[in-house]
Amino acid sequence: MTDRPESLVIRPPSEWRSLLVRITRGCNWNRCRFCGIYPAMGQTGFSIRSLAEICSDIDLLVRLHPRAETAFFGDADPLAAGMEIFCGAARYLRRCRPVQRLTCYGRIATLHRLGPENIRRLAEAGLDRIHVGLESGDAGILRRQRKGQSPEMAVQVARWLKEAGIELSCYVLLGLGGRDRWRQHITGTARLVNTIEPEFVRIRRLWLHGNAENGCPLWQEVATGAFVEQSPEGTVREVELLLGLLHPLNTFFACDHANNYIQVSGLLREDRDEMLAEVREFLARPEEQRRVHYTVIGSRI
Ligand code: SF4
Known about the structure:
Blueprint: E1 19-22, E2 24-25, H1 37-40, E3 47-48, H2 51-64, E4 70-74, H3 83-96, E5 101-106, H4 108-125, E6 129-135, H5 139-144, H6 151-164, E7 167-174, H7 182-196, E8 200-205, H8 218-224, H9 232-245, E9 252-254, E10 265-267, H10 268-283, H11 287-296
The structure holds iron/sulfur cluster (SF4).
């Protein structure tokens, strides 16, 4: 035991003020072809921390951040720690600090394996919201990218979460279909989002960090030409198509990452048309202006 809590590798931008509690280290799946984020950040393996270690970190975090009102559990899939550890940690945290919100990352496949009864137990232990990598609603793209989940699994999981009263925050990855399958990617994604109506859709852009020698598996397909990366403007067209296909849902749509070339956000039910108009206004700007904009936006984790 030390006087510093273990740090998470990454967290959602919306959790920047939260108590960041590490339940597991790394990603237990680690097979998505486009990812490799944890190994790239020095976390090559996966392990589960003991409840005693986690509770000791919670004690430290509560002391170090007396004003924090929300908490987040990581790394990639803390639910893989099992119900006893996850719920034990959630209950201990809520005893130490009555936070307004407890959220975590989670894999759809893990939630699907847990089933509706365990998902209800997660809610009882105090989990309010879960951030999942939906990535795409197209079954073929998910398979090709080895995501380990299907749109059907996402539909079931979303229903169980709704029944349990846990909010669903979904990440959608622009560019995941490459240049060849972008319409298929976005059409399938819109269909899935319209079906599950999550509380949040958060837009990310595919960015392959590293290089062909030292990066994620998708780099090899880029090198052979089997996967052609989407252009910057292509990702903006994807946002346009997605917004055009999404229904007026009670879903908050957010491009809340600095890598996105277009930053629109709002409630689909109220702000969808305005967001769409903003994207179209951008696409109508002179080509040189758009090119400069794409150059200025960086790529970072
Ligand atoms: S995208 Fe998520 S589940 Fe897939 S390898 Fe990366 S961290 Fe793991």
